[in-house]
Amino acid sequence: MLEYFEDYEPGTVVEGGAEVADEAEMLAFARRFDPQPIHVDAAFAATGPFGGLIASGWYTAGLFMRLYAERYLSRVASLASPGVDELRWPVPVRPGDRLRLRATVLSARPSGSKPDRGVVRTRGELLNQDEQVVLSLLAVNLLRKRPASNT
Amino acid sequence: MLEYFEDYEPGTVVEGGAEVADEAEMLAFARRFDPQPIHVDAAFAATGPFGGLIASGWYTAGLFMRLYAERYLSRVASLASPGVDELRWPVPVRPGDRLRLRATVLSARPSGSKPDRGVVRTRGELLNQDEQVVLSLLAVNLLRKRPASNT
Hints:
The structure is a homodimer. Chain A is built from four helices and five strands; from the N terminus they run βααααββββ. Chain A is α+β, with helices and mostly antiparallel strands.
């Protein structure tokens, strides 16, 4: 169980979850946030390079975040995230795809300025039912250290 | 009007739009995609470092994408995007914030492998009503060149 900064040891892998890319939700998301034809126009998308609708990369990122928050990020110790690097969508997500999380701790170091916390860098991935990586990113998270009384 | 690859000249700036971070939408998004207490639990958030609820960074990214798709990305020439780098959320977004887009073409080069398209790199930003940058990223987009008959 990843609870405090000290638990995020480099090499630790958390894997699991099953978020389905529901077609209606995918379309509603794209209509509001990413209304490009390839994401919202089924007839157009059918004639395109993917042979049908594909999810907005930001919807895929939302499904990733859901699993990352539920299964990886500590509920008691997570502070703000300054950002994300190398966000990639190597394989398109299609309606009905079943996606799971893989999160790997790359590094963990105590904060230089604030003694109560540390900085954890994570490779986050989302894989589909065919074991293809559909999303990959590098996340930076600030996590509180375990309180002295809990050691 | 940015229509084909050739129109995305380095230094071009597109600015505008007004997306409001609606509290109900912000909460619904976070409950589904990013259920961390700071995004979904108003009582908890009130006692935290921000003194209230802040938007999931992925909701902010969604508002960015809406404006980016509507105002910057060509409807006729945009192909897939391989990814995004340096995604940052330097200032939190709060309910009621009014956000606008600023997109700056950083570079544009013809594709080395496919003669019909080019690669455009863009600094994308979202600014709030106080002129603070709340989201910043580097986007890579593939755009078709202008067809010869249209020149």
